[in-house]
Structure formats: C-alpha cells, structure tokens
C-alpha cells in the first residue's frame, strides 16, 4: 500500500522488519521480493508519483573538476526514480568483469558471476526484456536475415544487448505495491539520518521528514540503502551523530572511488567506402523472442589483457553526414566495392560510432559533503570525478582498434578527433552519468564499504545496494546488474529475517 | 557484404588518362614523365586508377605532405618502384599480367596495412600508408 507521509502525525513511529530507503529500480525490485510474505516492509520515497521541483532540488550539489552537468537533472527523485527517463539498454556483466586484472589497480569483485547468475533471468523479467539470451546474436541475426559484421575476433566481437521498453518502474509496479498488504511505500519521505546504537554497530531507526510537513521515525530490524551512487554515500556521511566521520566510514572509504563510464559520443565517424553495407542489426532495435535486441561491438577479454586495457563497447548509429568531403569513396575500389561511394553528403555515406569505456578505479575521486545546505539543513554533495592519462591512452587505443577494424573489413575510413590530438580528450567526451563505486564491495573493510552480502562492514543490520557497491563497472550499463544484485540481497535478507 | 569488382577503378583510369597534362603524353623529356620505362608508367597508371575522385585524393596527398614534411618523394617513377617493391614485385620484371593484377594486390596490401597497423593519421583520418602513398603518386603523376 501507499502512504502519503505528509498526513502522518508529527513524531509518528513506523515499525518494520525491513526499511528500504529509495523507491527507484532497486528499491521497488527489492520490495516486490517481499510482497506477500510475513515481513513488514517500509519503503521510503522522497517524492510522490510525479516529479516536483522542491523534491527534485534536494539532489542539488556541485562538481569539483571537469564535469558541469547539474546533479539534480540526471537523476529523478520520485516514485520509480531514474527509470522515469532511462534509456533501457541492458547487458549483464560477464565473468571477466568480476576478475582481478593485475594491470588495473583496485580491480576485482569479491564475488563471481556464478553468484549473480541465479538472479539474472528474473531480472530480465523485471525489466520486461524477453527471454534471457545474451549469447544468441548470431542465431537471431540469421532469423532476422541480417548480417553480423565480419570482425576479426582477436580485435572485436559482436555481442548483444537487450533493450527494455524501457520499463518505467513507477508506472509498471505501482499496482502491485498498491495491493500489497505487507509492503508500505511512504511517499514524500526524506530520510535525514540513520540513528545507530552507541558503538555505531547497529542501526536503530531512521529520521524522516516531509517538506513543510511532519517528521517521523522508522524503526526496523534491517535497513537497506537503495538511493543510488551519490545519495547512498551522502546518507552514510550525514549520519554522523555517533560515528563522527559517518556510518561505515572507519577507513575513509565512503564516497571514495567515485567512478563513471567514460563516454565519447561520437568516438568516430566512418566515411563508408561502399554503399552495399547493412548495419541494421546494430543500428536498429529488433523484436525477437518477446524482447528487443541489438548488436554492439566489444573487445575480447584476451585483447584487453594483451594490451592492458579496460573494457569498452561501440554502438553504431546510422546518422546523416556531418562533414563534407568524405574520404571513404576515394578508396572504394581498393575496398572491393562494386561502385564508388558518393563524395557528396548523402544518407548512408557515414556510420557513427559511440564508445563507452570502463574507468580505472581511482581512490582520489570522491563524493563528499560540501558546505552548502539543502532545505532541511543537510549538507549537499561535492563530487570529484577524475580521469587519468592512462584512461585517455586507453580511450585512444580503443578508438584506434575500432578504426583499424572498420578499414580492415573494407567498410570505410575513420575520422576521430583523438587520432589527430592524442593528448586531449575529444570535445565529445563526457561521463555516463552512471554514478558508481562510492560504497564499493570488498572482502575486507580496508578495501571497501560493504561485504559480499552488501552489508556495511561493522554494522550488523545496514545494507547498501545499487551501483554504489560496484568495485568495477565493466563497459555495460548498470541497471540490469544492480537489480540482479538487489534480488540476491533480498534473498540474503529473507534468510536473516527467517 | 563485400564485392571484388574494379570496374570503378577502370572507369577512373580512363578519366585520369585524359587529365594527364598533354606535355606528359607527348614528352619523354619532362622530368617525372619518363618514356624509357613504359611498364613503370603502366604500373603507375594502373595503381592510381584504383583511386576515385582524383581531386579529393590530391587533397589527401597534399595534407599528408604538409603534416609529414620528412616524407620526400623524388618522382612518380621512384614512388611507383617503391610501391611495387612493397607488394613484393620486382619493378624491372613487370609483365602485363602483373600490371593487370595490381589493383587486387593493392587492395590486399591496404587490408594488411590495417592488420599490421601500418597507418597514418591525415587530419583526423586514419588511412593506410599504402593508400596515402597512392594519393601522393597520383599527385606526382598528374
């Protein structure tokens, strides 16, 4: 059921077995795991059913460094969270993403893909993605009668992504939660602080406030933070009544290792040397097996090991030409084309390549509490996202590999700013706005904030889930993976509640 | 997804032959238009015939030479010889059959450039060294 917390009496106390903070993709997916059970679940959501400016402004913060986008614009603070505007691209991590790679400092998860596997098929359903099949691109291509690219598998391989509709959690899952008798969603509920015992080893309650409304308290046996890669650490840092540096922050790691995908969009434009190419498997979404799929390109694990790179992916976009005088047509004959590609600006003379690259975990990047205060008097965030020379070199090499491969296939020639100015990030460089790593998972508290069960080190009943626990983020989009991790956490908590 | 015809190249070759300065067609005395080794001329024509849009190819060559001033080429004959040698051919032992096969050999060589990363960046474009030299050859020849 849903509760409008603005109508609660001031000083009200909610008692629950489990308190989930945040009703975005993760919070809702977790809450649904408890629906119909015996556990009393309280889900705290800052917003209502629709966006409102006052609530959204609670996301305000600042950047230290190169990023400038407003923090209150890319995340959505209402029931359903950021799924209200997500793109819906999905692909699970693979075994290599979890591995420790000696050429990448701070790499490796304490868990393996096998521990996530049992939850991926269900996650696929949660995200309305059709059958869980990520190794069927060749088969699907045959069914669709579309060609895959003849890539050199030592350099790049084609893999598949699923495209969610994209699922708007606030719309799709509201009816189920309205009917629930044991899961209560408290709207307009802004959690201000977690209150612990005297040794900060157990959370007793959460202090909650409504904008211009009552304040109340939630007492629970277990608490789960599911407010995203920025707000999860913020709440832990704000909860400093007992632990002066914030909860779970004995080693100063809460908010450290702030990371995000490195995006270059476009990374390169391919001036095509032939007009008989068919990229639709990659540029279009295809309805098959009850879901939408499309192809992307990524390097095999062996190449990243050989060249000491992080992982990356290429998306293809069939866009109109942005430049005159393409060079591809000059070399059409050398590429064996039946006729020269046109020199003029015509549709089909270019294919655009976007790149997303895995960053290197960096302890010097952080989110922390700044000096500015929000309307509740809570300190806003300062975010410092860092990119390094090594990451620039990785990006440059990745683009070179893509450019080489398109030309080797005889498809065209690549134009990329980074080829000309290798010591500069291109104008099209940005972050993925996938905030990750700020409460990273590790096997010991010197290296991370949560353990393999997503429990905060040193605190018996506080769990964190979402992208903030990712120690490495691979090249793929986080949503499917963070939901799968949350379903796994739900199982773990069920075991503790039993 | 690929074809193997070089009809476009042959079409271009005809166009190119009309655009060669008249003095070259009649002369044997003009530097760079040597008549004493007609097979080299044939090979040069056959090779630059693989390029479409000669004006664009010339721009690529000019940009390449501006960016890489250490790259010096004496004449189209010497560059032709150099390119032939890079294909594993003896410039002094060219027959009609070999000259006819040059477009396919060059296509393969360009692909191997992209495998072996024998490439140059010309004003943000990644090009094979062989194809850039073909552009230079065209510029020298015309």
Q: What is the CATH first-level class name of the largest domain in chain A?
A: Alpha Beta
> Biggest interface pair, residues each?
A-B, 38 and 38 residues
Strand order of the largest sheet of chain B: 1-2
Looking at the structure, the CATH topology of the largest domain in chain A is FAD/NAD(P)-binding domain
Largest sheet of chain A: 8 strands, mixed
Rg of Cα set of chain B: 15 Å
When the domains of chain A are counted, the total is 2
Measured distance between first and last alpha carbons of chain B? 34 Å
Walkthrough of the structure:
The complex is a heterodimer of chains A (498) and B (142). With 498 residues, chain A is α/β, with parallel strands linked by helices. Chain A has helices at 25-34, 53-56, 71-74, 95-98, 113-126, 137-144, 169-172, 174-179, 228-238, 280-283, 301-307, 389-408, 417-420, 479-497, and strands spanning 2-4, 12-21, 41-44, 61-63, 89-90, 157-163, 183-187, 190-196, 203-209, 215-225, 262-272, 286-288, 291-298, 312-317, 350-357, 366-373, 379-384, 412-415, 429-431, 462-464. In chain A, the strands form four sheets. In chain A, strands 1, 2, 3, 7, 8, 9, 10 and 20 form an eight-stranded mixed β-sheet that branches. In chain A, strands 11, 14, 15, 18 and 19 form a five-stranded antiparallel β-sheet that branches. The longest helix of chain B is centred in the C-terminal third of the chain and has 21 residues, at 96-116. A two-stranded antiparallel sheet of chain B has the order 1-2. Chain B starts with 6 loop residues before the first helix and ends with a helix. The model of chain B is unreliable at 1-35 (pLDDT under 50). Chain B has seven helices and two strands, in the order ααααααββα. In chain B, 37% of the residues are buried. The chains are: A alpha/beta (498), B mainly alpha (142). Chain A binds chain B through residues 147, 150, 152, 271, 274, 276-278, 325, 327, 329-340, 343, 400, 403-405, 407-410, 413-417, 419-420, and chain B through 1-9, 12, 49-53, 56-57, 59-60, 103, 106-107, 110-111, 114-115, 117, 119, 121, 123-128, 131, 134-135.
């Amino acid at each position: 059921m849903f509760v409008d917390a603005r109508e609660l009496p001031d000083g009200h106390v909610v008692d629950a077995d489990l308190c989930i903070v945040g009703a975005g993709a993760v919070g809702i997916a977790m809450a649904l795991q408890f629906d119909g059970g015996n556990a009393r679940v309280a889900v705290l959501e800052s917003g209502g059913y629709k966006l409102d400016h006052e609530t959204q402004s609670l996301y305000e913060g600042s950047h230290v460094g190169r990023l400038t986008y407003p923090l209150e614009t890319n995340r959505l603070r209402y029931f359903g969270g950021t799924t209200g505007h997500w793109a819906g691209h999905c692909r699970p991590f693979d075994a290599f993403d979890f591995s420790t790679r000696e050429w990448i400092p701070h790499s490796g998860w304490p868990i393996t893909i096998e521990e996530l596997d049992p939850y991926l098929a269900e996650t696929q359903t949660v995200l309305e993605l059709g059958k869980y099949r990520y190794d069927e691109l060749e088969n699907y291509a045959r069914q669709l009668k579309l060609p895959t690219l003849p890539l050199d598998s030592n350099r790049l391989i084609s893999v598949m992504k699923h495209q969610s509709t994209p699922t708007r959690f606030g719309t799709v899952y509201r009816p189920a939660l309205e009917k629930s008798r044991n899961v209560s969603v408290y709207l307009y509920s802004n959690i201000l602080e977690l209150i612990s015992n005297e040794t900060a080893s157990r959370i007793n309650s959460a202090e909650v406030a409504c904008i211009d409304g009552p304040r109340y308290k939630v007492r629970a046996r277990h608490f789960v933070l599911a407010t995203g890669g920025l707000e999860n650490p913020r709440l832990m840092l704000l909860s400093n009544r007992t632990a002066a540096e914030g909860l779970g922050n004995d080693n100063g790691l809460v908010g450290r290792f702030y990371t995000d995908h490195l995006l270059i969009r476009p990374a390169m434009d391919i001036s095509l040397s032939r007009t008989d190419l068919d990229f639709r498997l990659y540029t279009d979404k295809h309805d098959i097996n009850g879901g939408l799929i499309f192809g992307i390109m990524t390097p095999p694990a062996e190449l990243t090991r050989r060249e000491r790179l992080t992982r990356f992916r290429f998306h293809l976009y069939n866009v109109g030409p942005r430049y005159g005088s393409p060079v591809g047509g000059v070399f059409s004959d050398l590429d064996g084309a039946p006729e020269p590609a046109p020199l003029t600006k015509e549709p089909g003379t270019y294919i655009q390549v976007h790149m997303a690259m895995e960053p290197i975990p960096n302890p010097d990047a952080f989110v922390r509490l700044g000096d500015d205060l929000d309307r509740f008097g809570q300190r806003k965030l300062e975010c410092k996202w860092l990119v390094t020379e090594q990451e620039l070199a990785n990006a440059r090499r990745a683009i070179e590999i893509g450019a080489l491969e398109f030309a080797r296939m005889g498809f065209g020639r690549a134009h990329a700013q980074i080829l000309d100015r290798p010591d500069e990030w291109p104008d099209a460089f940005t972050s993925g706005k996938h905030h990750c790593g700020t409460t990273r998972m590790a096997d010991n508290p010197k290296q991370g904030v949560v353990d393999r069960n997503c429990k905060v080190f040193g605190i018996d009943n506080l769990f964190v889930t979402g992208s903030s626990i990712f120690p490495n983020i691979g090249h793929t989009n986080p949503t499917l993976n963070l939901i799968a991790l949350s379903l796994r956490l739900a199982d773990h908590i069920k075991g503790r509640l039993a | 997804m690929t074809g193997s015809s070089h009809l476009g190249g042959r079409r271009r070759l005809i166009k190119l032959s009309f655009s060669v300065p008249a003095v070259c067609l009649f002369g044997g005395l003009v530097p760079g238009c040597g008549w004493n080794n007609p097979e080299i001329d044939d090979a040069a024509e056959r090779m630059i015939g693989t390029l479409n849009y000669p004006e664009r190819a010339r721009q690529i060559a000019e940009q390449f030479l501006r960016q890489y001033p250490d790259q010096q080429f004496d004449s189209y004959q010497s560059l032709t010889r150099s390119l032939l040698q890079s294909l594993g051919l003896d410039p002094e032992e060219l027959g009609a059959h070999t000259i006819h096969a040059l477009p396919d050999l060059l296509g393969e060589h360009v692909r191997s450039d992209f495998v072996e990363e024998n490439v140059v960046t010309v004003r943000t474009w990644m090009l094979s060294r062989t194809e850039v030299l073909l552009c230079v050859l065209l510029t020298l020849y015309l």
